[in-house]
Predict the 3D structure of the following.
Amino acid sequence: DFVMTQSPDSLAVSLGERATINCKSSQSVLYPSSNNNYLAWYQQKPGQPPKLLIYWASTRESGVPARFSGSGSGTDFTLTISSLQAEDVAVYYCQQYFNSPWTFGQGTKVEIK
Amino acid sequence: EVQLVQSGAEVKKPGESLTISCKGSGNNFANNWIGWVRQVPGKGLEWMGIIYLDDSDTRYSPSLQGQVTISADKSISTAYLHWGSLKASDSAIYYCARLREEDTSGVFDYWGPGTLVTVSS
């Protein structure tokens, strides 16, 4: 199975500051013929289901604020929240869908400093 | 608007059977793949499997194959998750979610609210 490892496990960021979450895959999730990275990011707030933020590593889902961006390729990826808002407090998960079983990272908890 | 409505919370004893459901609305759901994702409260997410509502083509996570059964009734746009004999370790929140219609590659764009299953003697 592809093992997805996120870092850090938690971080506290001041309102308006940048938050950066890393996700490393045990194997590449880049499909060479299409140059697509099979990597998604989700946000989960307490008591709610996950919400899709980013897919293909860097494509924002419709309706997701522009402060959320994804980058990276191959095995190393980053989710950046450019200016943290109070409503961004949540746990964030990366997910690879390159190979079955699809697997998630362990989650990164983002809090306000 | 796409909506996924899941059945209510369940409390069961070890060894009992259980089926939970996920009904889609707001779309031609027969053409959708619906997946199941497990989350032990306070823990991470685990993909369990997916089913194509139109023909019930099903794919399981290898670690769960044989432990659960995923099925569907396309006439009512509903997917099901069934256990024949529950274990305490099956206690979790079970989410259903729809694969993105545009590419069905493995990204879940709509999620149900979750069904909490508690298995305890």
